[in-house]
Design a protein that fits this description.
Length: 347
């Protein structure tokens, strides 16, 4: 009887162990599963920012799909994104945005993203990104070079070009003020440097004939736009695109009959540090960050170079350590030779 009892016990243990297995599948980086996850991640990351530029998918570097015993799926993907010329305020879909060319100093972002799939729908649960512009040595000889967003001469071109734009408006049209500077660069030409500037603008409560202190419109909602200008103070060209005003949603539970607080006048964001606009910022959920690989490269905002602990990426509030959970055995579903990284979409 002992051998029989031993076999039964071993069988029960084997069954319990099997229930704790989670399978791992590594599809090709250009597979439909990888493409779907990458595009969901791209849209989610771009939606997290209110300043700077949108980023577009360039390459899927790695992917794995973890299937849990309960049937739930977790996707872990590593992506390379490239900065586009679309500001985040621009409603143009990322698919229609032009990726910033090499001669304008490209900005690359590496991102690690964890997604869950439930009911056939993928959603991002955690991500970390690091971005960096090409070094000056990588930019073509004679091409414009990025300068700090506090560069005095370049900012004079910003102010002068905005004045030119406002001067072309109708008398009953509101003036626009600078909301934030996106990029500043300079290029050495005959006679000295010329500057290339990009900045966001916002509609104010002043008309073009007013000379009072102007503040952004609250009601109706202010229109915003984006300007690109180049030249020197004596010769500037500017092109501005205005975006439709976005109506803020009204809280249906708000008490509209009570006293109304005076409106708060938002401050214009004039100058930000270089990091904010030439690089992409990182946001992640500390509770799910453990799904992502530890990487020494993912230490800043837009791209996750593959290995950097989260505490080097963001100053996050301390999260109580979770109780230790016995390691769960992993078992590939089907042996598969994964083809990664995937195709390069731009350069």
């Amino acid at each position: 009887m002992r051998p029989v009892g031993t076999v039964v016990i071993l069988g029960l243990l084997a069954g319990a162990w099997a229930q704790g297995l989670q399978s791992i599948f590594k599809p090709n980086c250009d597979s439909p599963e990888a493409e779907e996850a990458a595009l969901v991640a791209q849209e989610y990351i771009n939606a997290q920012f209110s300043h700077g530029y949108k980023f577009a998918l360039n390459q899927i570097e790695e992917i794995k799909i973890i299937t849990k015993p309960d049937g739930g799926e977790t996707y872990i993907v590593e992506l390379e994104l490239l900065q586009t010329k679309c500001h985040v305020l621009d409603p143009t879909p990322v698919a229609n945005c032009t990726v910033r060319p090499l001669q304008e100093t490209k900005v690359e972002a590496d991102c690690d993203v964890a997604l869950s799939k439930a009911g056939g729908v993928l959603s991002v649960v955690a991500y970390k990104c690091k971005s960096k512009p090409d070094s000056a040595e990588d930019v073509c000889l004679g091409c414009p070079q990025l300068v700090a967003l506090t560069h005095t001469d370049a900012l004079q071109v910003v102010d002068a070009s905005l004045g030119i734009f406002n001067s072309k408006l109708n008398n009953d049209t509101a003036q626009f003020a600078m909301l934030e500077v996106g990029r500043l660069s300079s290029q050495v030409v005959t006679g000295g440097p010329q500057y290339f500037v990009e900045y966001a603008i916002v509609e104010t409560n002043c008309t073009v004939d007013d000379h009072d202190a102007c503040v952004p419109l609250l009601q109706p909602p202010a229109r915003k736009g984006f300007c690109v200008a180049k030249g020197v103070l004596s010769a500037i060209t500017v092109d501005c695109t205005l975006f439709p005003a976005v109506q803020s949603p009204v809280d249906p539970t708000a008490n509209l009959t009570g006293s109304v607080a005076p409106p708060v006048v938002p401050k214009l964001r004039t100058i930000h540090g270089l990091k904010h606009h030439h690089k992409l910022s990182i946001v992640s959920d500390p509770a799910t960050a453990g799904l992502l690989s530890e990487s020494n490269e993912s230490e800043e905002v837009p791209v996750v170079k593959r290995q950097a602990p989260m505490d080097t990426l963001l100053e996050l509030p301390e999260v109580p350590a979770a109780p230790e959970i016995p390691a769960v055995a992993e078992m590939p579903v089907v042996p598969h030779l994964q083809i990664c990284p995937g195709r390069i979409r731009h350069f």
